[in-house]
């Protein structure tokens, strides 16, 4: 409106070159595990380090001594022969996963929840961004995780009905 052009309530700040980070996290119907902030690119060797130092503690926290099936997508580091050997050597079953199927991956919805919680944080530095991500992740409840896992039969039905095309999930 006339005269409001420079009023702070009418302005939206933006960052020309926003900070970004790559994060690895695990979830189950029981909740979330610890986060790993990743430096650089992920190859098979670095992914296996993440599995060793973050996935195994997550599995211990979320499953204790119970068996579980691990799910990840078909990123090159995930599908590398050495990564498959790592899982075999550790006695961990990996879910056979279809390519390009984010509709069936409940952690994608969890990351969306984390991102929505970050909208109001407006971090200005990399450390602030990491702290905001950690706080958002820590606020995820076991109930939220359980609901996402419980939605899997509906997700599968939706993908089948859509004949593999995108769904609301």
From TrEMBL:
This is Tc1-like transposase DDE domain-containing protein. It comes from the Eukaryota. Pfam families: DDE_3. InterPro entries: RNaseH_sf, Tc1-like_DDE_dom. Residues 18-130 form the Tc1-like transposase DDE domain. Transmembrane segments: none annotated. PANTHER family: HTH PSQ-TYPE DOMAIN-CONTAINING PROTEIN, TRANSPOSABLE ELEMENT TC3 TRANSPOSASE-LIKE PROTEIN.
């Amino acid at each position: 409106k006339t005269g409001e052009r420079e009023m702070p309530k009418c302005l939206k700040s933006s960052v020309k070159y926003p900070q970004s980070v790559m994060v690895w996290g695990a979830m189950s119907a029981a909740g979330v595990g610890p986060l790993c902030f990743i430096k650089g690119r992920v190859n098979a060797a670095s992914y296996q380090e993440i599995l060793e130092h973050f996935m195994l503690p997550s599995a211990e926290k979320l499953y204790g001594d119970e068996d579980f099936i691990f799910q990840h997508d078909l990123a090159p580091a995930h599908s590398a022969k050495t990564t498959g050997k790592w899982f075999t050597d550790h006695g961990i079953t990996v879910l056979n996963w279809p390519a390009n199927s984010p509709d069936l991956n409940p952690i994608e919805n969890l990351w969306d929840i984390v991102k929505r919680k970050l909208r109001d944080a407006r971090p200005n530095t990399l450390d602030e961004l990491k702290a905001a991500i950690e706080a958002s992740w820590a606020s995820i409840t076991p109930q939220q995780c359980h609901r996402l896992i419980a939605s899997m039969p509906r997700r599968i039905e939706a993908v089948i009905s859509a004949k593999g095309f995108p769904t609301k999930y």
